[in-house]
Amino acid sequence: MISRLSAFKPFKYNKTQQRTQFESEEFGPVFIQEPDDAIFSLDTDDKKVIMNCEARGNPVPTYSWLINGTNVDAEADFRYSLIDGNLIINNASEAIDYGRYQCRAENSIGIILSRDALLQFACE
């Protein structure tokens, strides 16, 4: 009987198995990274601003952005593009782009809105 017990090995989940088990369960978006306040230098040659945002969820969340409470239309304005959850602003302009940004992540379970991130402009 002792030899049978010594051959018994309890089953343990490894991290991959645990992740797979949890990923099969649906859940609303949860932020991994929210946008931070930024000061963009007007003296730089690279006129690109990147506002970061990342969320987890199942189903995988989709993203959109707001500036001062208004939707950023990346399809209508070529200066804006979305890569994953990140907002890229090309040819950033103080007159147009200064303001408070929020990232919105949503899936069929829910919607979350990030904290405000203030984008400011300054000369060096």
TrEMBL record:
GO-annotated biological processes: cell-cell adhesion
Keyword Repeat: yes
InterPro entries, per the entry: Ig-like_dom, Ig-like_dom_sf, Ig-like_fold, Ig_sub2
Domain Ig-like: 29-114
GO annotations of cellular component type: membrane
PANTHER family to which the protein is assigned, alphabetical: CONTACTIN (PTHR44170:SF6), PROTEIN SIDEKICK (PTHR44170)
The protein, known as: Contactin-5
